[in-house]
């Protein structure tokens, strides 16, 4: 997914918080110059998009009037660059040379994150614990964090939203210990080893794989030491979180087993490849963490990242009017 089509203020604000650089293309369906420069913008997006580093968006100013007004968009197309959530540059009008010049200046920073998908997974804009499948990208920013539900969570640990943060897990530094005081940036199960995670999405996605990070530390002398996940059942397009008994009665779309050799010792992450044909039009996911890789009654998960592509193909519509000014 190279360009993200913005459908709400909340979606755009989430991107501003999760990506170091966001480029916004404010356009209108009736705008001829918008149509003319679209291939240039799309080409730059394909070349320079980097998960959590540089994100390219399109915003229909007629449909998202609040956003257009908030950022003083008075003509179409208008391209605005945001860095760390703040508006830093504006390119007004269909000027391919100027647009290319401004965006190419971001390329140097973008390339710094190319090696971040391996090794310790650290970059200036985000964190990854496993390689991203070629041809796909991180679509975790499409998670509706306000609608997350997590059953059987230990309330003394983190909330569900910490699983989808782009920051480097604290457990990486301590190889499992992390922040034991205050709000933890991981989750643990409570009464037994099972967790049920409901993940609503802001748009329809094609999901290729998941990255599951766990810095659980095995301890033979402590039967309360948490385990890493082993068996995960996946369900799609449910309207709500499943109860544990309910999940047992519903066939999973896919059941995966994470083997010991699947875990990267350095990043604590396992890449879970899915049966892509089964995950083509996904609006929500349910992850049922069934058991772990030991005998403990505690399960720990530090991060979940979703890798895939947008399942929506938006049409620009028929060119109805040529002009640059909104509302003409």
UniProtKB/TrEMBL annotation:
<dbReference type="InterPro" id="IPR036249">
    <property type="entry name" value="Thioredoxin-like_sf"/>
</dbReference>
<dbReference type="Pfam" id="PF06201">
    <property type="entry name" value="PITH"/>
</dbReference>
<dbReference type="InterPro" id="IPR017937">
    <property type="entry name" value="Thioredoxin_CS"/>
</dbReference>
<dbReference type="InterPro" id="IPR013766">
    <property type="entry name" value="Thioredoxin_domain"/>
</dbReference>
<comment type="similarity">
    <text>Belongs to the thioredoxin family.</text>
</comment>
<keyword id="KW-1015">Disulfide bond</keyword>
<feature type="domain" description="Thioredoxin">
    <location>
        <begin position="1"/>
        <end position="108"/>
    </location>
</feature>
<dbReference type="GO" id="GO:0005737">
    <property type="term" value="C:cytoplasm"/>
</dbReference>
<dbReference type="InterPro" id="IPR008979">
    <property type="entry name" value="Galactose-bd-like_sf"/>
</dbReference>
<dbReference type="Pfam" id="PF00085">
    <property type="entry name" value="Thioredoxin"/>
</dbReference>
<dbReference type="InterPro" id="IPR010400">
    <property type="entry name" value="PITH_dom"/>
</dbReference>
<feature type="domain" description="PITH">
    <location>
        <begin position="128"/>
        <end position="326"/>
    </location>
</feature>
<protein>
    <submittedName>
        <fullName>Thioredoxin</fullName>
    </submittedName>
</protein>
<dbReference type="InterPro" id="IPR037047">
    <property type="entry name" value="PITH_dom_sf"/>
</dbReference>
